[in-house]
Design a protein that fits this description.
With 218 residues, this protein is mostly helical. The protein has helices spanning 3-7, 15-29, 37-58, 60-79, 83-100, 104-117, 122-134, 138-151, 156-168, 172-185, 190-217.
Length: 218
């Protein structure tokens, strides 16, 4: 995730807009706002990145150098695409097609191939884990989804996938944490918003059932 994305601004952002974006994020994510120790530690990591992005983009010289590095990295990634990476992309693309059709067994084969060809790509790991979760494979599902989250902590999409796996395993508590974590990184993540609504509705419905049951018993 580049610094512009961290601050939620475009690459043509002005100095004033950088300051404004930083102040909004600082009010929301400063570690001192969180009383829970684990949450505070997570927010400390996020806030450190926000501060680093802010200081880099606010300084004209640092920003110019950063933009050059960003452009150079992007170019190198395009040039250095090896046959294995191209094969991995194709395998992943095929896996997504089968996943969308609900053919999880076939999708799993392609996602495994993608991970085998490019083991450190978070996207491939996340979808392999999600597909395994759809088929009830607990350990493998959590392992691959968690690996993706660990690789790109700031990617809300991967938190949502991990949350869905927990939900499939009837672990609503951890699922809820994942969806909230996704929204902490990206409050506009529509998948996280939708999943959060579903799980809250499910918990509320379950609580209502037990309430009626206890009343009848009384």
């Amino acid at each position: 995730m580049d610094y512009y994305t961290v601050l939620g601004v475009s690459k043509s952002v002005t100095t004033g807009e950088i300051r404004k974006a930083y102040l909004v994020l600082a009010k929301k994510y400063h570690p001192d706002k969180f009383t829970d120790r684990k949450e505070a530690e997570k927010m400390h990591e996020k806030f450190s990145l926000i501060v680093k992005a802010y200081k880099t983009l606010l300084d004209h010289t640092k920003r110019t150098e950063y933009d050059k590095t960003l452009a150079s990295t992007s170019y190198k990634q395009k040039v250095e695409e090896t046959p294995r990476k191209i094969q991995a992309k194709m395998a992943f693309k095929n896996g997504i097609e089968y996943y969308k059709k609900g053919n999880f067994w076939r999708a799993e084969k392609y996602f495994k191939s993608a991970v085998s060809l490019s083991p450190d790509t978070p996207l491939y790991n996340s979808y392999l884990g999600l597909t395994l979760g759809r088929q009830g494979s607990k350990d493998g599902a959590l392992k691959y989804c968690q690996k993706a989250v660990d690789k790109e902590l700031y990617n809300s999409h991967f938190h949502v996938n991990l949350g869905i796996v927990y939900k499939l395993l009837d672990d609503n508590e951890n699922a809820l944490k994942c969806f909230k974590e996704a929204l902490a990184w990206n409050e506009k993540d529509s998948r996280a918003q939708e999943e959060l609504k579903k799980i809250k509705h499910k918990v509320k419905k379950k609580a209502g059932f037990f309430s009626r049951f206890l009343k009848k018993g009384g």
